[in-house]
Please model this.
Amino acid sequence: MANSTEEAKNQMLEAIGVHSVDRLFEQIPDEHLTRREFRLPAPLTSEVALKRHLLDVLGKNETCENNLNFLGGGVWQHHVPAICDEIWSRSEFLTSVWGTPSSDLGRNQAWFEYASQLGELVGMDFVGLPVYSWGAAVGHAFRMAARMTGRTRVLVPALMDPQRLDVARTYCGFPEQEGHLEMVAVAYDPATGRLDLADLDGKLDRETAAVYFENPSYLGVIEDQAAAVCRMARRRGAEAIVGVDPISLGVIAPPSDYGADIAVGTTQPLGIHMNGGGGVGGFIATRDEERYAREYPTLQVSLTDTIVEGERAFGLTLFQQSSYGSREEGKDWTGNSVYLWAIANAAYMSVLGPTGFEELGRAVLRRSHYAARRIAEIPSVSVEWPTGFFKEFVVRYDETGLSAAQVGARLRAKGIFGGKDLSGDFPGLGQSALYCVTEVHTRGDIDRLAGALEEAVCA
Amino acid sequence: MNNGLRKYHAAVWDEPLVMEMGAPGRRGMLFPDAEPELESLAGDAGGLVPEGMRREKAADLPELSEPEVLRHYLHLSQETLGMMGISLFGTCTMKYNPRIAESITRLPFVADTHPDQDIETLQGTLEVIHGLDEMLRDLTGMDRFVFQPGGGADAAFLHATVTRAYHQAAGALSQRRKIITTAQAHPCNPATAAAAGFDVITLPLESEGYASVEALRSVVSERTAALMVNNPDDIGIYNPHIEEWVDIVHEAGGLCFYDHANFNGVMGRVRARELGFDACMMMLHKTFGAPKAGGGPAVGAYGCVSELAPYLTTPVVVKKEGGYTVESSGAARTTQVREYLGNIPVIVKAYSWLRAMGAEGVKEAADLSLLANNYMETRLLEIPGITKGLPHLDEYRMEMTRYSLGELTEETGVTTVDVQNRMVDYGVDAYWMSHEPWFIPEPFTPEAGEMWSIEDLDYWIDVIAAICDEARTNPEIVKTAPHNQPIHRLEGSGLDDPERWATTWRAYRRKHGSGAAAAASEG
Model:
């Protein structure tokens, strides 16, 4: 702290005309001042000591770099191009505050490029700046749909990440409250893992504000009835909301192709490290129609002009409907989110390009399907839905006589993070785990997993 | 410029949009199948996607090589002022972001960990979370902190949802529908209260600089769910009756939330729990040394008393024999504001900052914040045209002061927006004017914090003084500012016009036609 020298303090005290800094706290009544002796650890005043401490503590973590990782479920290990880290960690971006459209032109342009490229991937032309997470995006989308339709019920897939569902539910409130949204689960077809359309049909009614489904689903299945789901929703006057994994959109049809009204999802796979779950971010995208645009809770930048003809700028559009503009009269609320990641996302999308996304998608499909086949060959282990998925699939251990936790522990002993244990969240799937395979996995990695899994269950 | 200030001009790259760059067939990142046998083993990749669900037309993304992408974004970074200059952006507490924490959090044991890893493989992360929890408990007196909220506003939302769950459990939610806040509280407080389903009562500013105890009493009732307030506020006023406020709300059965967005001036001196609050929030980005990053990733650390702990978002980290583990409670299903444990890198940065500062350092930082603010005030008020917001309140302000340029505007026509646009011509980050509502005409709110040197503060003041001088001698240069930035002032008339707004390039091309786009890029 530059002004911690006695000279600096005295210079400021003198200019102010007081003898002691305590005098400056005069507004705080004496009885509000704490008498406590704080117990914070003694300060690590040198960078060398601080670094050593942080390395010692954080070094207790195991990582997905020095283990073979197959965990996914909404936070996925994809390759992070080195330039993504180089770009977001530039001090100008890292420390940017708020600025003006002129002084922070570059950052605002990068935000516009994020929204524009994401819009190309999902086939939508109105995209807000990111929200906290996928779950938050779902929650906001539900509230947008409820305001647009004046209805009070939302349908969600029965097979959804329980935490993501909890976040969405948090945005829906309690029945005792005005404006509460009732959440109703739509069953799945156990044979395919896809939505049960008959059940959906029975639950869609005049109170349904939105139908939410995911593509691929939480458990990896590509929802090939997507067009039918959207059609059914629209026919009953409900909004069709789809949650997508944007990295799949090089090979999987964009939401606009099958008639979704609102696309949401996570931004993490687009060049952001998993960060122990700290890498997540959410997006909301729709057609550029006033009906949708005027319900966005987010900030967003629009390409616009300056006072000099022909000169481009980027300004906040529809600011007045945000909580900054209208406090409790605004649409939900907004605040600091994950705008820095949006810059890394922009760099990611532009360094991949259309062919990169397609190539990446194909590489993922091949590896994940190879993995599913290898695992299905293991005696007493089966793959629940062995085709029609993108990068994740469910492996069942029931016939091994082992719990998913036991299998996981045995794999861990071999330096492998096996699939995510689903037995607690989805008892209907027995002892099972969700495996994620991406472009970072080699055939050798997959063979090693299969060998280790076979040993684990046959031991 | 002959005012003794440094020469400055921002980088101008006239950078096209990335979507306008590149050439067909150019590649930046390859994912070749190094193992072609995978195809024969797994089948044709295209055929692995169910029919009807395959992408037919490639996404219209740019086609660029890696160096082009890097240079493009480096150019954009150079066209971003950030904290390359001096930023005394009030209400946000802009301070240095130690690069040691930046470099540590980019290492695999933070960056390349998965949240669902077995708890035994995340002991380092859990130790940091628990350690930060304990340090924040010490600073505030709360019993438990969680870090899931993705920003200060999200922590306010968490409080609103915890309030909801608490009263719902007591069967009182249909009765307790009101959340009380003040006009000086950050907009996120009323906004999140409303989003959580509450009616909002906003107490107006009164002549003492805060709403009166009587005003509070007149709205508190058995329908009160909670109080959500900042103290001090952004004008620099500390409400000395806050303990009485808390008592009044508690007596009526409501909860009290201390939005500690303005923690920098009271840290080490005031503990939220000792004032009676049930919960509080601090921003780990900004106040605790993690970067603002243009708007996150961020963390609003939310702390509460044990009575509210059952309603917290989950999982929470707890100490166990020989290490740490996580616990979840069922009640959290209506207060889960974000997935997983929080923005881990931001948590590590805040932990690192507190370990470097220690208790004495934190207290000294608060001291320096008030010293710097009041030092600035003595100089700023010497500049003709600048007055102090609520000038009749003459006690020393806390870590920031809100000022008015109303007199300057009356005299010269130069507004606070003009001054803001002119500041950046001197390489100084634009100030924050005021959150809504504006109480003070032509407001601006600098916050010095503990990090900026006296020379930085003096330079910032010199810039404001020079601009106020220009407002009298050459007002046009201020009204048409900026002049030393990559682009001129925004012409924002189309921003709220559905025929003209465009948040994506595809929307822009549709609305403005390719001719307009070409003209713009040539301009």
